[in-house]
Design brief:
Elements (H helix, E strand, L loop, with lengths): L7 E5 L4 H12 L3 E6 L2 H15 L3 E5 L7 H11 L6 E4 L14 H29 L2 E6 L12 H20 L5 E6 L4 E2 L2 H5 L13 E2 H13 L4 E2 L3 H9 L5 H12 L3
Parallel strand pairs: 1-2, 1-4, 2-3, 4-5, 5-6, 6-9, 7-8
């Protein structure tokens, strides 16, 4: 509770994968929710289930976050409904797999809009009210991809490097304000992510035992409420992110290329 008001969490990419697991965690803890994704039908199904099971309020906003106007439209709709956001989960994102000179430019610009521009825009919009009330939490979904260049997913890796750098910087700026920022940096995760990126045959995921979305979300959720600026789920992933710091960049890039290639 914030004062006498039940707190509200906004979650983007709420209809599946890590986002949906965040939805369940916040619902279980009694938060009201704002669910954002493209599929209104799927969101409504989730909302109906949560209302029945947990007795919480759930608002559905169907938006394609690749639309540059989406953040302002989301913010305006919530202002008109007098809904204050206490927790912002910038989970939405996707990847594109392939050689940069062969991948589709339009799709990559849309990816940057979702992964970088929308995340930044929503953070800017909701942060002001959080600072005024002296409380708020923001979680941005980065990736272990943020720690090194990624041949065959060059733009995606670069977008996640931005998310990590941005999150760490504003987490520092906000110290002592009552508002915290956490960058969640999972490795490959069981979700629809790989299928959408058309990278299911990549050595990075094919035949590998990878973490499930429920585990990743719970680790991120706990880190968010522990006010951790960065969390990397899993020992293997933690070791990877530390190892690249001491390895020549050119070699790191070659290793990542090898891991990304199809079997």
């Amino acid at each position: 509770m914030q004062g006498n008001r039940k707190q509200t969490a906004l979650i983007t990419g709420a209809s599946g994968g890590i986002g949906y697991e965040f939805v369940k965690l916040f619902a279980q803890d009694g938060y009201n929710l704002v669910l954002v994704a493209r599929s209104e039908q799927k969101l409504n199904q989730i909302a109906d289930e949560l209302k029945r099971k947990f007795g919480i309020e759930v608002k559905v906003i169907a938006q394609d976050l690749a639309n540059p106007a989406a953040p302002e439209e989301i913010f305006s709709e919530l202002q008109q409904a007098s809904i204050k956001i206490d927790v912002l989960i910038n989970n939405a994102g996707f990847a594109i797999y392939g050689l940069f000179h062969e991948t589709d430019l339009t799709a990559e610009l849309q990816m940057l809009q979702v992964n970088v521009m929308c995340l930044t825009h929503l953070t800017k919009l909701f942060l002001e009210d959080m600072l005024k009330q002296g409380y708020g939490k923001i979680l941005n979904l980065a990736s272990t991809a943020a720690f090194q260049p990624g041949p065959l997913m060059a733009v995606y890796y670069a977008s996640k490097a931005y998310v990590l750098s941005f999150s760490e910087a504003i987490a520092n700026e906000l110290e002592g304000t009552g508002v915290s920022v956490t960058a969640l940096c999972p490795g490959p995760t069981e979700s629809g992510f790989q299928k959408r990126a058309a990278m299911e045959d990549s050595k990075l995921v094919s035949g590998q035992k990878i973490m499930d979305a429920e585990t990743v979300a719970k680790i991120g959720y706990d880190a968010l409420f522990d006010n951790k600026p960065v969390v990397v789920p899993g020992l293997k992933n933690k070791l990877l992110t530390e190892t690249v710091r001491f390895t020549p960049r050119r070699l790191v890039t070659k290793i990542v290329r090898s891991m990304q290639e199809s079997k």
